[in-house]
Design goal:
about 350 residues; elongated; alpha+beta; Immunoglobulin-like
Length: about 350
């Protein structure tokens, strides 16, 4: 009795599995069965379930066997009772090959079944071989066609053209350059810049003395020597004197008072006496006194500059007045001569 029940149960199970398999239809296709080496081929698996009670897992998309190379894979997509899987692959060998079978797992409730795709034959052709077959070419004729063209030596005129163009370009460049140089030589040369004024020279020297600040380094003697020399050189250039080699005592002469001005001469002599005391009597000056001496020198320079400018202005005005007086005298003499001639 037990054996009969087992037989009946096995028969029912077998019929159930057969009904499951028949309910699910598997269709595997590729886009083309005759390809050129390196072509991309689309492989699709379509599963149809009339009952829509099945679940599918797969197909396996791991490392494909040689010479197949999987390039792209899409997951299962459900579309109105259909489940579609697509993959794109290529083949890296020529000749007759066979796409292997793939397993798809079908799950219905607690039951599972594997469905297997059929192998698909594919013919892979080489482009060079197919070209030879289509055109009935021999290997020698094919190699002859693929030979690079023979190089032809340039003719005389081509050589002349290649050499002539650079020579013409160089000659043109040199000619233009020479012409521009000639034109430039015809232009009047710009006047030289005016020489620096005595005020500009002495102010530069005072700025250098202030930046060096030798008194801060303990070299007060060097400071007063530079300051006195700068003032004497300015006086010589401004007033056309020779004080650089003169002593302080010699500068007490009356002509210096007249030329430099009484107050300015007194300030200058006082500064020179203090400098002589530092240089020859080992005297000293405080830092504030050194800075004050530079300011006094700048004031003297500004006073002398303004005085000279006023003298120039007065001289110009006097010259203008004299010119006007002469012109009036000339006009008066002309009138007198005219009257004398009329009386005659």
């Amino acid at each position: 009795m037990k054996s009969v029940s087992k037989l009946v149960l096995a028969t029912v199970l077998k019929l159930f599995l057969l009904s499951t398999v028949q309910a699910v239809q598997l269709d595997a296709r590729i886009s083309k069965t005759s390809v050129i080496l390196g072509d991309s081929i689309t492989f699709s698996i379509q599963l149809t379930d009339v009952t829509k009670k099945s679940k599918f897992i797969g197909p396996w998309t791991g490392n494909w066997p040689q010479p197949f190379v999987l390039l792209q894979s899409k997951p299962l997509i459900e579309d109105n009772k259909k489940w579609i899987w697509e993959g794109i692959f290529t083949i890296i060998d020529t000749g007759q090959v066979q796409l292997p079978s793939f397993d798809v797992l079908v799950i219905q409730g607690k039951d599972t079944t594997y469905l297997k795709t059929n192998p698909i034959p594919i013919e892979v052709k080489s482009t060079l071989i197919e070209k030879v077959k289509e055109q009935n070419l021999t290997l020698d004729s094919l190699l002859e066609k693929n030979k690079p063209p023979k190089s032809i030596p340039p003719s005389f005129w081509e050589w002349l053209l290649w050499l002539g163009i650079p020579l013409v370009a160089i000659s043109l460049f040199l000619g233009i350059r020479k012409y521009l140089s000639y034109r430039k030589s015809l232009l009047p040369s710009p006047p030289p810049p005016p020489p620096p004024t005595p005020e500009e020279i002495v102010r530069r020297k005072l700025n250098v003395i202030l930046k060096e600040a030798k008194w801060q380094l303990g070299d007060v003697k060097g400071f007063v020597t530079d300051l006195v020399n700068a003032l004497k050189e300015y006086i010589d250039a401004k007033f056309e004197l020779q004080t650089l080699e003169s002593t302080t005592f010699e500068l007490l002469d009356e002509k210096y008072k007249t030329i430099l001005g009484l107050d300015e001469h007194e300030t200058l002599i006082r500064m020179f006496y203090i400098a002589d005391e530092v240089k020859f009597a080992k005297g000293n000056m405080a830092n504030e006194r050194c800075l004050e001496a530079i300011r006094e020198a700048e004031n003297l320079i500004e006073i002398w500059y303004q005085r000279k400018e006023m003298e120039k202005q007065n001289s110009l005005e006097s010259s203008t007045v004299q010119t006007q007086v002469v012109e009036k005298m000339d006009e008066s003499n002309i009138e007198k001569d005219t009257e004398r001639l009329n009386h005659q």
